[in-house]
Design goal:
Elements (H helix, E strand, L loop, with lengths): L1 H33 L14 E6 L2 E13 L2 E8 L17 E5 L3 E3 L2 H13 L23 H15 L13 H16 L2 E2 L8 H16 L3 H21 L6 H7 L12 H16 L5 H20 L1 H4 L5 E2 L3
Antiparallel strand pairs: 1-2, 1-5, 2-3, 3-4, 6-7
Helix pairs in contact: 5-6, 6-8
Amino acid sequence: MAGSSRTGADDDSANESNGTATTMSGSDTERDDESPPDLASSPFKEGEKVLAFHSCHIYEAKVKKVDYQRKQWRYNIHYLEFCLKNFLFCISLNSWDEWVGVDRLLKYTEENIERQEANNKKQGLEKNIKAGRGSQVKPKSSNAPRGKKRKSDSAIKEKDALPTEKLVSIHIPTTLKKQLIHDCEYITHLGKLVKLPRSPTVEEILQKYFDHRLKKDGSAEPVKEIMQGLRSYFDKALPLMLLYKSERPQYEEAVGDKVLPACVYGAEHLLRLFVKLPELLFHVNIEEETLTELQHNLVDFLRFLQKNQNTFFLSAYQMLSD
């Protein structure tokens, strides 16, 4: 019986050994299968101009890198600079890159460009597509010659436009630019609103930043003045230039003449102010040295917002009817 048991044990060991060999062989086969295919077989190439899905819209982009991960092609794309006309803010995403899969990309063909235009029009988005492709909507009642009309419109825009070289440069981090894009899409395309009152409020966020600087620097009197200035700008600018049309009834109900906006609104609307600040500061007489210090502190404040983005900003908005 002992011999029989030993033989059985030997058989089991042999089976285990064979099983191990089989498993190792299978692993080798899997590794062989997972070896990256030739780049030439990728549907999209480095440097290729493409159309990319982001949220519910389609944008122009360029493939910067191609990689093969977990048995699928991945592409690092660079969104080409664009400005969304029906945004409350004109936002440049010139430095926005991200990795996407094949399902997010389309070939840059006439057929897909038409698909892009139709999709973005359906979403209520006016997109600046390559010059000459977009169709101009003619006014229904206008007897002015086409050339003169265009010249007149251009002259008005030039007159109203501020000289960009004289505007204060305030760099908004890419993740916060994305926040602005999502904010607009939630409100203008999905019919949602920021639930009010917010927590933390603008007033509380400004205080948190002051406390942060006080702890870091030991003294923060200049920062205190800047935070007071930001609050003042926010309270005055919100009803004039920081609200979308669909948000106005909510503003009248939540704020009206009862309370200051900084005590009701939060990071979502405060971030919008930073897009408008260069224009607002253009009309203020500030010495160059003071302006440089202000610019430095505003950029540092934006970094503070970015660091606390998950805490300060909403991840979901409410429906208008909620």
